[in-house]
Specification:
Length: 455
C-alpha cells in the first residue's frame, strides 16, 4: 500500500503550525495562501480517488436493505405496516443467507447494485453512524459517555458525518485528506473537487474545494468571451481582476481570482481532450454529476493528479411522508448513477483505483408515522470499487425490533460502527499512515479497530 510521503506530511504540519501561530486575527485569505503553488507529483501510475455520494435528508435504511428471510420479514412488516416492501417484490435482489439463517435483500430498485454485489465490487457497511466513541445502549440511556452533538438534527448531523463537528465546522475529513495529498499533485487546486455545490466535507485546513458544474469548470463569462461584443473589454477586465495590487486584501483577492481563471483554462483544456464514454449515463442530476467525475478522472494525467477526493449528492430523502412513492424513485437514481459510474471506471481501466461510498445525515425510524419515517441515527451504506472486497456485509446486522438491543427508540439504530472507523478505512486505502490518521480524524484515538477490512 502506498503511504503518504514523509515530505508531504512535514509540509502539511509546517503549514498547519504557521497558521495556528497567527491565531484568529489572521485574515481569511491567509488559509488560502499555501495552496497556489504546484508541487512535484508522485509516480504517474500511482493514482487513487475517493468519491463520496451524499444522500441529503436521511436515507431510510429499512427500505434500502430489507429483511428477507420469512421470520425477519414478518417482524419488519409488522413494524413498518404500510411502508413495508412486500416480500415477493424482493426475490430478484435477495442476498445470500447469513449468520443465524438471516437473509437480507436490496430494495427492488437496486438491481444493478445487486449485480455489482454478485461481481464482488460492492459491499454493505451495516449500521454505521456518528459516534464520539464506542457506545452501548446502557451508556446511551445513562448519558455516561460523550454523544454526538444535536442528534437527529439535519444540519448538525450532516456536518458531524462530514466533519466530526456540528454545524459551523470549518473543515471536513475529505478536505483534511486533501491537506495531506495536495503536495503530491501537479496542481493542488484539483485535489478536492465538488460537483454539487459546497460541502464542509471537502474543506481542508489548507485545501480548498474546487467547485465545478456538470458541464465542467465554472467560467468568468466576462473574460472567456467578448464583453459587450468587445475583446478589448474582456482583456481589460481580465487585467483588472488578476493584476498585482499593493493593498494586501486587493492583492489576495486578485491572486485567488487569477488562480480560478488559470484553473478554468487548465481544466477546460484537459476535459476537451477526454473522448466520449461508451458507458451510458442518464440525464438525472446524480448521474450527470458522476459522469463529470468520470471525465475528471479520465483527465487526471493532464491535471497532474495522483490523489483526488470528490463529492456528489442527491437530495429528497427527508421523507416524513410519501415514502412509499418517493423513496423508490430516489433509489432508482442512485442505482443507475452508481452502476454507470463503476462501469465508466472499468472502461477507463481505473476501477481498482477508485472507491465510492454513500453517506447520509442519518438513518430513519423503523416505525411508520403513517406515510413516512422520522429522523433516526445509524444506517446502512454502500462501498463500491474494484479494490473493494465486495459481496459481503461489514459490521453487525441489527435486530428487527423496536426497543430492542440496537434501538434507542422507534427503531432508531444505535450505530455499532462509527463514521470515523469507516473514514479511517478509506483514508488508509488512500495511503494515509496510522501515524497520520489523527490529522484527518481527531477522534480516531477512541477506537481500537481502525480498518474495517474493505480492501
Amino acid at each position: 500500500m502506498n503511504k503518504l510521503p514523509a515530505l508531504q506530511r512535514r509540509e502539511f504540519l509546517r503549514r498547519a503550525s504557521a497558521l495556528s501561530m497567527v491565531g484568529t486575527a489572521a485574515p481569511w485569505a491567509l488559509s488560502l495562501a499555501g495552496i497556489g503553488e504546484a508541487a512535484a507529483a508522485t509516480a504517474p501510475g500511482d493514482y487513487k480517488a475517493l468519491v463520496c455520494v451524499f444522500l441529503y435528508g436521511g436515507n431510510d435504511y429499512g427500505n434500502t436493505l430489507v429483511p428477507y428471510d420469512a421470520a425477519s420479514h414478518a417482524a419488519y412488516a409488522g413494524i413498518r405496516q404500510a411502508l413495508a416492501t412486500p416480500r415477493d417484490a424482493l426475490a430478484a435482489t435477495a442476498l445470500p443467507v447469513g449468520e443465524g439463517g438471516r437473509q437480507m435483500a436490496l430494495a427492488p430498485q437496486l438491481g444493478k447494485l445487486k449485480g455489482l454485489w454478485d461481481a464482488g465490487q460492492l459491499a454493505v457497511q451495516l449500521n454505521v453512524g456518528t459516534l464520539v466513541q464506542p457506545t452501548t445502549l446502557a451508556q446511551y440511556k445513562a448519558r455516561s459517555v460523550p454523544l454526538p452533538p444535536k442528534l437527529f438534527s439535519h444540519n448538525d448531523q450532516q456536518s458531524v458525518w462530514q466533519a466530526s463537528s456540528p454545524e459551523g465546522a470549518t473543515s471536513g475529513w475529505g478536505g483534511r485528506l486533501g491537506d495531506l495529498f495536495m503536495g503530491g499533485n501537479g496542481t493542488s487546486t484539483f485535489t478536492c473537487i465538488n460537483v454539487s455545490g459546497n460541502a464542509v466535507y471537502m474543506a481542508g485546513k489548507q485545501a480548498v474545494q474546487y467547485q465545478v458544474s456538470t458541464s465542467g469548470a465554472v467560467a468568468v463569462n466576462g473574460i472567456t468571451k467578448p464583453l459587450y461584443g468587445s475583446q478589448a473589454c474582456a482583456t481589460a477586465l481580465r487585467s483588472l481582476i488578476t493584476a498585482d495590487r499593493t493593498h494586501w486584501m486587493e492583492a489576495e483577492l486578485n491572486r485567488v481570482v487569477k488562480r480560478s481563471v488559470d484553473a478554468q483554462t487548465t481544466l477546460s483544456t484537459a476535459l476537451a481532450g477526454v473522448p466520449a464514454f461508451a458507458t451510458p449515463f442518464d440525464t438525472a442530476a446524480l448521474s450527470s454529476q458522476l459522469s463529470m467525475v468520470a471525465k475528471l478522472i479520465a483527465a487526471r494525467q493532464s491535471l497532474g493528479a495522483t490523489r483526488q477526493v470528490y463529492f456528489v449528492s442527491i437530495g429528497g430523502f427527508d421523507l416524513h411522508d410519501q415514502l412509499v412513492t418517493q423513496h423508490p424513485l430516489l433509489l432508482a437514481q442512485v442505482n443507475d448513477a452508481l452502476a454507470s459510474f463503476h462501469a465508466a471506471t472499468v472502461e477507463l481501466g481505473v476501477a481498482n483505483r477508485v472507491t465510492t461510498f454513500t453517506a447520509s445525515d442519518f438513518g430513519r425510524t423503523l416505525t411508520s408515522n403513517g406515510d413516512g419515517s422520522d429522523h433516526g441515527w445509524g444506517s446502512h451504506h454502500f462501498v463500491m470499487g474494484g479494490a473493494v472486497k465486495g459481496g459481503r456485509f461489514y459490521g453487525t446486522l441489527p435486530s428487527v425490533s423496536v426497543n430492542g438491543p440496537d434501538d434507542v427508540g422507534q427503531g432508531r439504530l444505535l450505530p455499532t460502527t462509527s463514521v470515523d472507523q469507516l473514514a479511517a478505512t478509506l483514508a488508509t486505502w488512500m495511503g494515509v499512515s496510522a501515524t497520520d490518521l489523527p490529522l484527518v480524524l481527531p477522534q480516531i484515538a477512541n477506537y481500537t479497530q481502525r480498518d474495517l477490512g474493505y480492501f
